[in-house]
Amino acid sequence: MPELKRTRKIFFVNNWLAAFIGGQVDAAALQQVESFARQPDLDSDLRLQLLEAMDGLERTVKIRARFARLLP
Questions:
Q1: CA atoms of 17 and 10, how far apart (whole Å)
Q2: Cβ(49)–Cβ(12) below 8 Å
Q3: Pick from 35, 50, 56, 62: which is nearest to 2 by CA?
Q4: Separation CA 37–CA 29 (nearest Å)
Q5: Side-chain-facing half-sphere of 59: CA atoms under 13 Å
Q6: Where do runs of H (alpha helix) occur along 1-72?
Q7: Is the full-model pTM beyond 0.70?
Q8: Distance from C-alpha of 4 to C-alpha of 27, rounded to nearest angstrom
Q9: For residue 65, which of 21, 30, 38 has the smallest C-alpha distance?
Q10: Span 40-54, pLDDT tens digits
């Protein structure tokens, strides 16, 4: 992410994060995103964008955990 921000290879970081993280559905993916967000050298604006995108994944993981017995 810092590299993408510096080189501006993607213009809408929020949209890219939402698409990338939004496609994830399991707790392992959430753990990886949380781990990345805890990096001390991550720019604060990127951290906030990441946390915003992570919100949907957190909700998905909670819902799937609660209704796991109903999933195929």
A1: 10
A2: no
A3: 50
A4: 12
A5: 8
A6: 2-7, 13-22, 27-37, 44-66
A7: yes
A8: 26
A9: 30
A10: 998 888 898 889 889
